[in-house]
Amino acid sequence: MKTRIGIGCAILVSAITASANAEFIAYTFDSPGGGSGWGAPNENLSISSEHLHWWGEGYGTEGVLFAWDMDASEHAAGTITFDAAEGWEIRIVSFDVSGYGTPFNEVSLDVSANGESVFDTILGVNGNSTIHNVALDTSFASSFSIKMEDLAISMNSGMDNVVIEMQQIVPAPGAVALLGLAGLAARRRRRN
């Protein structure tokens, strides 16, 4: 009997994930504000970064985050992480990557959802004349990170215009019905 209840619970949990209307948020990094100061404030999304700094010009777009670690003897690398509040989920729709000034550089990008890599690539960035738009088609998750690493010892790659889609998780109508049936079955068993 316990086995049946366990299987029923597993089925119920997987059926509960439906979603409400989605909203899109663009982070343009037009000012050195940091965190939610980089875009429209949203109480259901938090932003953190490691070894990313703001710069206002020279990347072919107004304001970027570039990777720079004063202590690194290797390539400059930095990460930005977006975490959804409880009851919400997010996905990265797109972001731009460009180079600084005139030198050619390559940048390695790794996008992770809930700590697992979902996209990686290496792009050539040729000064401020090339802006790459990286468009993604990923599933929703509770957390996303973008890691950007220059493949030269420099700080010649910048990230801008990160577009996030977020949606609230709501119970699917079928899941609510299953939950009601499970309650009725449990009540009936107690009577017998």
Features:
6-stranded antiparallel sheet; disordered N terminus; alpha+beta; 17% helix
Short description:
The chain is α+β, with helices and mostly antiparallel strands and 192 residues long.
Task: Write structural notes for this entry.
This protein has 2 domains: 1-16 and 171-192, no CATH class; 19-170, Jelly Rolls, CATH 2.60.120. 17% of the residues lie in helices and 48% in strands. With 192 residues, it is an alpha+beta fold. Strands 1, 3, 4, 6, 9 and 11 form a 6-stranded antiparallel β-sheet that branches. A 5-stranded antiparallel β-sheet has the order 2-5-10-7-8, with no helix packed on it. Residues 1-19 have low confidence and may be disordered.
In terms of topology, how is this protein built?
Layout: H1 2-15, E1 18-27, E2 45-50, E3 52-55, E4 64-67, E5 77-84, E6 88-99, E7 104-113, E8 116-126, E9 131-135, E10 143-150, E11 157-170, H2 173-191
Antiparallel strand pairs: 1-11, 2-5, 3-4, 4-11, 5-10, 6-9, 6-11, 7-8, 7-10
User: Can you count the beta strands?
Assistant: 11
Q: What is the helical fraction, as a range of percent?
A: 10-25%
Roughly what is the average pLDDT, rounded to an integer?
77
The helix/strand class is alpha+beta
> Regarding CATH, which class of the largest domain?
Mainly Beta
The multimeric state of the shown protein is single chain
